[in-house]
Specification:
The complex is a heterodimer of chains A (about 290) and B (about 725). Chain A is of the alpha/beta class and about 290 residues long. Chain A has two domains: about 1-40 and about 100-290, Aldolase class I (TIM Barrel), CATH 3.20.20.70; about 45-95, Alpha-Beta Plaits (2-Layer Sandwich). Chain A contains ten helices and twelve strands. Chain A has helices at about 85-90, 105-110, 115-120, 135-145, 160-170, 185-190, 195-210, 225-235, 255-260, 275-285; strands at about 1-10, 15-20, 45, 65, 70-75, 95, 125, 150-155, 175-180, 210-220, 240-245, 290. Chain A has an eight-stranded mixed beta sheet. The longest helix of chain A has 13 residues, at about 135-145. In chain A, about 45% of the residues are buried. Chain B is built from 29 helices and 16 strands. Chain B starts with a helix and ends with a helix. In chain B, strands 3-4-5-14-13 form a five-stranded mixed beta sheet. In chain B, strands 9-11-12 form a three-stranded parallel beta sheet. Chain B has a two-stranded antiparallel ribbon with strand order 1-2. Chain B has a domain at about 110-130 and about 380-640: Anaerobic Ribonucleotide-triphosphate Reductase Large Chain (Alpha-Beta Barrel). In chain B, strand 15 and strand 16 form a beta hairpin. Helix content of chain B is about 50%, strand content about 10%. In chain B, helix 3 (about 50-60) runs parallel beside helix 7 and helix 8 crosses helix 9 (about 220-235). Chain B is α/β, with parallel strands linked by helices and about 725 residues long. Classes of the chains: A alpha/beta (about 290), B alpha/beta (about 725).
Chain lengths: ~290, ~725
């Protein structure tokens, strides 16, 4: 299950890349900016602010109705995710997230940009969601793309089985691994799961010799006390080529309401440049090659 | 002593708007116009080149001047131009050129052809005549010879021809040059004398030198460039580009340095020089060309190329505008600097691909040894300086109107008039519909080319161009006006407008009418006649349909290549009746808005009288597959068929090119585009949010510039229609 294939991505690995977003994730990071990736099921996003009340969609299904004043209302419980409303809505208030497809179909889409992916020293990035939740699909897709000589990066939270890692690792040129906290209770508070498996898997991946880019989402009040511990952990690994600090932003809050979710972090402040600079200094003092977006 | 540029900038950059003419120096524009009109009315019996030269000389002798002591390019002439908007409307145009063009058109052109063109133009086809206003003088000669050298050469040529049996026409041409250049030298002497009232010893000395000799110093060269364009413009010869100024100016810059000149003072001259053009507000900006490759592939980039970019970036201006000739050996620092400028909003830059241009010239059978000296004039149209006349904006084709004819049996849908021959209303297949469309394209084109070709033969009678012509050795030696085709290459160009509108419309017709049978052509005609009123749901579905040109998709791109190949096979390099060849272009400049106003609703969901697609761009907001897919669609066009321009306009969100990596990736896409045959690229790095904010708070965003077409403008000064067009382009990127 894929929810997006985005060309000309420059933030997820070297060069120009196409990123394949897998749907479904075992974590529930409270700052996640891709909430449409949570479940491995098709979902409908509805942006009420874009609705111009043309009522075209009300002719399609019972999920789109009139209220007592004749205005459009969307009843999520009645939605069967057929997607017809996405075709007819003039303002793109509806968006379907999630599509069943084969590795061959995804490969065909990715290879449409082969010219730029190869020419720029870029490639393809598997992201999500959690691509390792669909490890067999990932491996099949990676095999096709590797055959064509594409560089492959896997963006993972590392909450996966060894079997999943072993399936995908042979095709992977770089692992992009999120690391949220070293302290287990902090990690549980941030993501809903323990980090023991994650840390073990990172050490395991490091042992495979594949280059690793670690990514630390810096979220004030959530995991901002973890800088030094993460820095020391990163420094202990052999194949970390780079650490990226990703400052928290709240751009995704609207996506939550479009999915009918409540945004879990309404009051977290955006980190200041000084805070990020301080975090960078701490990481560097640990001996980590660090960068930030 | 003149103050530094930093202290004077504010005083200089609005100097044309705030000009105070010294009435003791000449006659007012109103009086000049009245007198010139009288001279024009009495000129019928005089050979046109002489009559025009005499009127021009009289105008120079009587123009009012102003000296602005705050700039080294101190002089201005009162031509009655309104500099508060785009500079337009001047004395010579209204009194001399326009009446003459009208007279020649009505008296010399075939009346039947004129009637046909006027009738068909009533449907908004936009067929036009000769382009007299995009010219490139031979700057190499001008700088080498100066005004005095050109005059001497013209006098020598006249003596030689007078002694060896030159024709009357040749002698008249040379006389017109001599009259014009003598008037220029009188004007320079007048400026020199007038300048003595001010404490401007360097300016006075430079002007004096130009009355006596070729330029001697860097300052002289810049001053000469300013004057030459002035003297062309006064006679409406409209020299556009400043030429390859890095190559032209560096030797003088270096010579001054070698003699002990202060580099910072020379750099200030460049600053003043650029701000002069910013202040003069010539329509669509004054272009200049940098870099390029020699025939052997070596890079022409020099220290002046770098210096110009540095200074230009520092000034944050958009006029003059910069065109950079890129190639595989281009100094990486140039592309890095240019792209860094573009991503920071200093985007008055167009990047051209030498290889694509050379291939285009090869298709016109022009060898690389000549093509290597091309410069860009106008927006992005190549021309071989000193060897080619290209009339870059002569014939035009509204392709969307041709599709309208194809769908309506040759009728104009807005007026009901039968414009072209009747064609079947209900073709049985999509292929048959395309053939009908091609038939209307060809009919329109044949007429447009025939008209422009014929019109071009009368260019010399309409506006003989002694100043422009005299810059060419060929013109002086052959004693022939440049419009009489003495140069090695005398071409004419055709702009094909509305590509994406047509491709998307045909894609819709193929899918919804011929494949799915959702509606018939009769029903589509009914919908278009109703301007989509009552069919909003279908229109939404069609607009949202992802199968559009600009997304690297097989169906629309095949339709696009079918059209571009049809045009190229039939018209690229077509020999013209008057000599020379036809050059094709897929750029629209801003005519996509004008032509759209005369075009009915189209099957792609476009409403009647709204803008057509621009250049070879995807329809606004329809390139949903991102810039790489968009580029790959464009790369399916054989750019060598469209040497008169095939520019890709991009819009990227600032986040896509931020940071060091963003700049590297930005360079990669440009490099890959060019390596795979892309012709030219220009664009904006801006978000829809920022443009909306500027729309709502113009004062705060008064300096936000935007690449409009082949030039930039301040976003807040654009019409609402254009502002909305750019916002649509930025949405969804």
């Amino acid at each position: 299950m894929i929810f997006a294939i985005k060309p000309f991505e420059i933030h997820d690995g070297d060069g120009i890349r196409t990123t394949v977003f897998f749907k479904g994730c075992p974590l529930r990071c409270r700052w996640c900016h891709n909430p449409e990736s949570f479940t491995p099921k098709i979902e409908l996003l509805y942006d009420a602010e874009l609705c111009q009340n043309c009522l075209s969609c009300t002719k399609l299904c019972s999920a789109n109705r009139f209220d007592n004043c004749g205005n459009h209302i969307f009843i999520r419980e009645d939605c069967v995710k057929c997607g017809k409303c996405t075709e007819i809505c003039p303002t793109d208030a509806f968006e379907l997230a999630g599509k069943e497809c084969t590795p061959e179909e995804v490969a065909e889409e990715v290879l449409r940009d082969e010219l730029f992916l190869k020419g720029s020293g870029g490639g393809v990035t598997f992201s999500g969601g959690e691509p390792l939740m669909q490890a067999e699909f990932c491996a099949s897709l990676a095999a096709i793309l590797k055959e064509r000589g594409l560089n492959i990066a896997v963006d993972t939270c590392a909450y996966a089985s060894r079997k999943a890692i072993d399936l995908v690792a042979p095709y992977t040129d770089t692992f992009l691994i999120d690391i949220k906290a070293i302290d287990e209770s902090t990690h549980i508070a941030c993501t809903g799961v323990s980090n023991r498996t994650i840390l073990d898997n990172i050490i395991y991946i490091d042992s495979l010799g594949t280059p690793i880019e670690l990514r630390y989402p810096y979220v004030p009040t959530m995991n901002d006390k973890e800088v030094e511990a993460i820095g020391k952990f990163a420094a202990s690994l052999k194949h970390v080529v780079r650490m990226r600090i990703l400052p928290y932003h709240s751009y995704a809050d609207k996506k939550y309401s479009c999915l009918g979710y409540t945004y879990p972090l309404p009051d977290v402040p955006i980190p200041t440049k000084a805070e990020i600079a301080a975090a960078v200094d701490v990481m560097r003092s640990c001996g980590v090659n660090v960068d930030q977006y | 002593m003149m103050k530094s540029f930093a202290e004077n900038r504010e005083l200089v950059q609005n100097e044309f708007e705030e000009a105070c003419w010294d009435e003791t120096t000449g006659l007012s524009p109103e009086v000049l116009r009245e007198k010139l009109s009288e001279m024009q009315n009495n000129s019928a019996d005089r050979p046109r080149p002489l009559a025009r030269a005499e009127m021009y000389a009289w105008l120079l002798d009587n123009l009012q001047l102003q000296i602005n002591p705050n700039t080294p390019f101190s002089v201005k002439f009162n031509l009655g131009i309104d500099y508060t908007g785009f500079a337009s409307a001047d004395v010579f145009l209204h009194a001399v050129i326009a009446p003459q063009m009208g007279k020649i058109t009505s008296s010399r052109m075939d009346p039947e052809l004129m009637r046909e063109v006027n009738y068909k133009n009533s449907s908004g086809l936009g067929i036009v005549g000769a382009d007299l206003f995009h010219t490139v003088p031979d700057w190499n000669n001008i700088i080498k010879l100066g005004f005095t050298g050109i005059l001497k050469n013209a006098e020598a040529s006249r003596s030689r021809l007078a002694a060896s049996g030159g024709t009357e026409k040749q002698l008249i041409f040379l006389d017109s040059v001599i009259i014009s250049f003598k008037a220029i030298l009188r004007m320079l002497e007048r400026i020199y004398q007038y300048s003595l009232k001010f404490d401007l010893p360097e300016f006075s000395a430079s002007v004096k030198r130009l009355t006596e000799d070729a330029p001697q110093t860097f300052y002289d060269v810049l001053q000469l460039s300013v004057f030459y364009l002035y003297f062309e413009e006064i006679g409406l010869e409209k020299g556009r580009t400043l030429g390859p100024i890095d190559a032209l100016y560096l030797p003088y810059y270096e010579a001054d340095i070698a003699k002990g000149a202060d580099p910072e003072q020379l750099n200030d001259l460049i600053r003043y020089f650029f701000i002069h053009y910013t202040a003069a507000k010539r329509f669509a900006a004054q272009p200049l060309t940098l870099c390029g490759s020699d025939e052997d592939g070596s890079d022409r980039t020099n220290e002046m190329s770098h210096l110009i970019l540095e200074i230009y970036d520092e000034l944050n201006i958009y006029d003059p505008k910069i065109q950079i000739r890129c190639h595989k050996n281009l100094d990486d620092r140039i592309l890095t600097k240019a792209l860094d400028m573009i991503r920071h909003g200093n985007s008055s830059i167009c990047l051209l691909n030498d290889e694509a241009v050379f291939r285009g010239y090869e298709r016109l059978e022009i060898p690389r040894s000549d093509a290597q000296d091309y410069v860009l004039l106008g927006c992005y149209e190549p021309i071989i300086m000193g060897k080619e006349e290209a009339e870059i904006s002569t014939a035009r084709l509204n392709m969307a109107k041709c599709l309208e004819f194809a769908l309506n049996g040759g009728r104009d849908m807005l007026t009901g008039k039968q414009i072209f021959k009747e064609t079947p209303l209900n073709p049985q297949s999509f292929e048959e519909l395309v053939e009908i469309f091609y038939m209307h394209l060809d009919d329109t084109l044949d007429l447009s080319i025939r008209f422009a070709d014929t019109h071009g033969r009368y260019s010399t009678e309409m506006n003989p161009s002694p100043i422009y012509s005299a810059s060419f050795t060929d013109c002086i030696e052959k004693a022939t006006d440049v419009h009489e085709y003495p140069l090695p290459y005398n071409n004419m160009s055709l702009k094909c407008i509305g590509l994406a509108t047509v491709v998307d419309s045909l894609t819709v017709l193929k899918k919804y009418v011929f494949e799915r049978g959702e509606l018939t052509l009769d029903e589509m005609r009914k919908i278009l006649a109703a301007d989509w009123e009552g069919y909003e749901e279908l229109r939404t579905r069609i607009i949202k349909d992802k199968e559009k040109y600009g997304n690297n998709l097989p169906v629309p791109d095949a339709i696009m290549t079918g059209i571009t190949k049809h045009l190229a096979d039939k018209y690229c390099g077509m020999p013209l009746a008057r000599g020379g060849k036809l050059r094709l272009a897929l750029d629209s400049i801003d005519k996509c808005i004008l032509y759209g106003k005369n075009t009915a609703a189209s099957p792609d969901g476009r409403k009647a009288r709204t803008t057509l697609s621009k250049n070879l761009c995807a329809t606004d907001g329809m390139d949903r597959g991102g810039i790489t897919a968009y580029m790959q669609s464009v790369l399916k066009i054989d750019a060598a068929d469209y040497v008169n321009a095939a520019v890709l306009d991009f819009v990227l969100h600032p986040s896509a090119v931020e940071g060091e990596k963003g700049l590297d990736d930005f360079k990669s896409i440009i490099r890959i585009f060019f390596e795979n045959g892309g012709f030219a690229i220009q664009g904006n790095i801006v978000s829809a949010e920022k443009l909306r904010a500027a729309q709502n708070d113009p004062a705060k965003y008064s300096t936000l510039q935007i690449r409009v077409c082949g030039w930039n403008e301040y976003f807040v000064k654009l019409s609402r229609v254009k502002q909305d067009m750019f916002i649509r382009q930025c949405e969804g990127i």
